[in-house]
Fold each of these.
Amino acid sequence: MTRMNARLREIPYNYTSFSDREIVMRLLGEDAWGTLDELRTERRTGRSARMLYEVLGDIWVVNRNPYLQDDLLDSPRRLNLLVEAMHHRLNEIEKRRTGDASARDTKVDELLHAARSAVAAFENQYAETRSLRRKVMRRLGAITRRDNIQFDGMARVSHVTDATDWRVEYPFVVVHPDTEDECAPIVKALTDLGLTIIPRGGGTGYTGGAIPLDRLTAVVNTEKLDTLGAIEQRVLPGTSGPCAVIRCGAGVVTKRVMEAAEAAGLVFAVDPTSADASCIGGNVAMNAGGKKAVLWGTALDNLASWRMVGPDASWIEVERLEHNRSRIHDAPLARFRIRRFEPDGSTLRGEETLEVEGKRLRKEGLGKDVTDKFLGGVPGVQKEGCDGLITSATFILHRMPKHIRTVCLEFFGDVKRAVPAIVEIKSYLDQHPKAILAGLEHLDERYVKAVGYATKAKSRGRPRMVLIGDIVSDDENAVAEAA
Ligand SMILES: Cc1cc2nc3c(=O)[nH]c(=O)nc-3n(C[C@H](O)[C@H](O)[C@H](O)COP(=O)(O)OP(=O)(O)OC[C@H]3O[C@@H](n4cnc5c(N)ncnc54)[C@H](O)[C@@H]3O)c2cc1C
């Protein structure tokens, strides 16, 4: 069989997006694919190859299915039968070897050796998993409710991916802390147990940040940290005059904060399109923003303070000083007081003030520069959960001017000619004496199609671009004139 007419997939039961090559390399090692490829070109009956693929298919289908794993964990007898069947096939391959120490026979021997190791690793994983699950339950069970610690198929499957739908590994365990106080001891226990920790909110992220890449991963789902405080008037450090603020647990759904603000006649400016499902911790970790970013910035611009647990289970409290109550890059200098506490949450380890030039926190002309993970050293924000677990955050709220008009512009024809309109609209309203652009949403062609956008000009087909702008002012005539 030549390379050209080789079947693309020979490993059976593989319903995943992984190719044969990836599976062979994952289970038998990097070099095994090359060896198999060489043998394939001189394949005789193909029976040995088929049996090897069946063994790999058995391992792969179980490794990719947490429900089958649960079944085998519950039934050592069924696990033994499966492993015996795998050994039987490998023994049959062994019998077919020529044993003449030829180059071909040596390659078959190498593959058989790798396959036996893969079967042993597969079998041993069950004993390891049982033992590690017991240890995790013992350590975490002393910190949080036992039913907040989940190993079952359902929990693992629902935390394998995010909005990207990219899948690599299933998490080993999913933990749902009930309170902020549980978070530091949970982080400490998981680190001591050698597990990789991934914080997670609503799982709407588009960067794959919440996706486990390692089998021994603990996903900390923050959705139970859903305490939403009352709106308070507070004088923020280094400012004069009260400012409306709201304290949110990391797991509060973004939309709930928007609704609370709206009910008080105020605006919560962090408004990603995913607000119905995203959570506050995820918003901070991604520095999320939406339509209102044009006026009030993204999460970073609106944070008054936040709390998080560092990788060493210490507490970090960050407070913005002299908040300019507007976009952070408009302030010449953004200052943050960072206080670090021991894992007990009350013994102060140290305090520092971080100063970052406002303009360094945002790339010229961009809402946010997602490539800048360091972000001037500000902890938590835009870090995708890499430097700690955000447990709560306090945001400033804004007052919306009395009058608002939403303008919708549909663009047909050449997109290149439509795009400059975004800058033109912004420049026009930046110079307007009384009206302000409070939000500008851009829907590109794919988005317009995906949401089934209903155009106002049906005869012209589907628009290539749509802009939705909110124009606001306390002067009704100014809004009407600008719109
Ligand atoms: C339909 C759709 C529309 C979207 N629209 C927008 C938009 O308009 N603007 C925008 O900015 N984004 C948008 N997004 C992207 C996404 O919704 C945001 O990034 C959102 O902030 C993610 O929040 P989440 O709670 O779902 O986070 P998750 O997906 O759960 O996690 C995202 C990242 O944050 C980390 N993280 C989550 N919680 C914590 C925590 N408590 N502590 C530390 N790290 C944490 C995770 O580890 C991961 O790296 C959209 C996504 C979708 C699917």
Amino acid sequence: MPDSTAPRAGKTTPAPTPAARIEAKTPELRVNGRAFYPATDPDMPLLWYLRDVLRLTGTKFGCGIGVCGACTVLIDGKAARACQTPVRAALEHEVTTIEGLAPAGGLHPLQRAWIEEDVAQCGYCQAGQIMAAADLLARNPNPGDDDIAKIPNLCRCGTYPRIRRAIKRAAQLARESGK
Ligand code: FES
Ligand code: FES
């Protein structure tokens, strides 16, 4: 089966050697632990680069104006709107998408909790919701209702009560596993 995360031909430059990279100051974009060298308009929204070049389509396009949160990814662990982040702003930073949230072959506590609470309805917003929740749990391992209510992501299906339960369940799972 082809690697769906592999960049499409012609859209990224070959990886330079470390020495050549330092010499040429080639900016690196790290996505889910892998290095890429975008040969693209640096003003391209990160969302396009992730979806159209790297084929990481778990991150969704919703409003395109920074409101809905469907495009939420983590940049150095903090939630960011990929539709409002140009590629150049993410260079030399670590980007994590929903595809890279869990350890290889496993599920992140948030993903387990999302399944156990049967959160998704249409599902469109859910990757962004989980990434926003990952940011929250990294800052606050025991969030209350008020903390969760501050997550600015929108859900047209109104799954907020299940999201709230899942975040609390994930926090408990993470505490139990010591992560
Ligand atoms: S698509 Fe980025 S915030 Fe809506
Ligand atoms: S589950 Fe449908 S938009 Fe959130």
